[in-house]
Amino acid sequence: MARQVVIDTDECIGCEACVETCPNVFSMGPGGFAMVVNSEGASEEEINEAIDMCPANCISFED
Prior knowledge:
Radius of gyration: 10 Å
CATH topology: Alpha-Beta Plaits
Structural class: alpha+beta
CATH architecture: 2-Layer Sandwich
Order of helices and strands: EHEEHE
Number of helices: 2
Number of domains: 1
Shape: globular
């Protein structure tokens, strides 16, 4: 099983950087915060780029 991408929604500030970087993985939820829609929607390298770009440091991988 592939590692899952998770977002700490308590820390998310709704900046949309992850959605812009990996739109097949992340989406903006109804509360204005990011959510994971498909952990396998981009390469690990692309997801790591989104993780690095997140100003709230709220995205991570979970085994």
